[in-house]
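Deviations from the work plan: none for this task. Representative record:
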Amino acid sequence: MADSLKEHVDTSSKGADQFVEIYYKLFDTQRPVLNRLYRDSSAILWNGNAYSGITPFAEFYNKLSSSEHTVNAYDCHPLPTSTAPGTPGSMILNVSGFVKYSNESTARHFSQSFILSPDPSNGSFYVWSDCFRFV
Amino acid sequence: MADINAVAQQFVTYYYQTFDANRAGLGPLYRPNSMLSFEGAQTQGADAVVEKLASLPLDGLRHNVSTMDAQPADGGVLVLVTGQLLASGESNPQFFTQNFLLKPDGGSYYIQNDIFRLVYGL
């Protein structure tokens, strides 16, 4: 039991490393493609505003000024699943850092909480739940 | 499902009241499968979690919650809290962010996942 938990933790950690790198890179430099990381079923809460699915959320974020995110820290926990170790299961991921929008003079601290689900077609993760807050 | 925001609000209020008054009282909120990441240090299981929290050299702590967001997720409730932490004798608050994944158990909820981070540089 302990071994398979360790494997789940390792798999989730690697998945989290990759996801964090891609997510903020896309948000900052290739925002039109960010929608690949979401689905119509994704539940998004952005600073108190709820968006059901990627379509209304994309409409919103495409209007934001260009951004530059700096990630300070992130933590992930694997969520208990019945998938075999080595096969990624879902995870909860919390990221904190700061973001500078081009139309503002100072950066803002943010905290973002994701629940990521595995995408079986390519071994990566997509956003099941997303909660973003300025701190 | 009960009103998510009410559940989360009740939980968050109870959690920080208990934390600030008597950290050991948090034990019943966790289970053997609960995971805590506190500033990067990972623990699992109610006993280990309470031991970790009780060992923190933070006396007379007060949490002030600034924001609380709740969403239904994975059969439970995902809660994101931001706020300030004041230690007695200190005049400068520290900012923190805490993430809970609550799961139902009988009539109430327990903490399955708990992630706490201090926010520096504000």
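Strands of chain A lie at 43-46, 49-52, 67-78, 91-101, 108-119, 124-134.
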